[in-house]
Amino acid sequence: MHKEMLLLNAGSQFIVCLVAISLLMICIQPEAYAESQKWSLNSALNTPEWLSLSGQHRVRYETLDEQFRAGGNGNDQILVFRTNLLAKITWKQWEFAFEVLDSR
After folding, report:
1. What pLDDT sits at residue 95?
2. What's the rounded Cα separation, in Å, for the pair 18 and 60?
3. Contacts of 90 (CB under 8 A, 6+ apart)
4. Vertex 17, ends 13 and 18: CA angle to 5°?
5. pLDDT at residue 4 above 50?
6. What average pLDDT is seen over the chain?
7. Looking at residues 62-75, what average pLDDT do you find?
8. To 5 degrees, how large is the angle CA 79–CA 18–CA 8?
9. Which of 30, 2, 18, 26 is nearest to 59 (CA)?
10. What are phi and psi of 92, to 5 degrees?
11. Contact partners, residue 100, CB within 8 Å, separation at least 6
12. Is-contact 82 101, C-beta < 8 A?
């Protein structure tokens, strides 16, 4: 087996490190934290009962090694962010929702 086959490129090393850290964090999660009351944005901001706020944030890393397109050379890497915020207002039998999405 060649030495080159055993070596990972920088992008692959980064992904392997992220997976290892994620698995480690899941495995060593303290039980006290798991049993504690869940945190919510509405509780932290002390919003009225008729208003509900929520959100999501996602980070994704992509890499492409050895271009498959004609004339392409080198590697491509990108770090993508997506943020989604949602506000719901409930009034009698009506519900109004306002959503903001940001993708970069």
Report:
1. 94
2. 11
3. 50, 51, 52, 96
4. 120
5. no
6. 76
7. 74
8. 90
9. 18
10. 55, -120
11. 84, 85, 86
12. yes
Tokens linked to 35:
């049993």
Residue with tokens 């060649």: 2
Alpha-carbon torsion angle 13, 15, 16, 22, nearest 10:
140
Where does the chain show beta strands of DSSP type E?
Answer: 51-64, 76-91, 94-103
| Residue of higher predicted confidence among 42 and 11 | 42
User: Which residues have CB under 8 Å from 51's CB, separation 6+?
Assistant: 42, 87, 88, 89, 90
Q: Which residues pair with 56 in a beta bridge?
A: 84
The pair of three-digit structure tokens given for residue 72, joined into one six-digit string: 């392409």
Q: Where do we find the tokens 């989604």?
A: 84
Residue pair 17/69 in contact by the 8 Å Cβ criterion = no
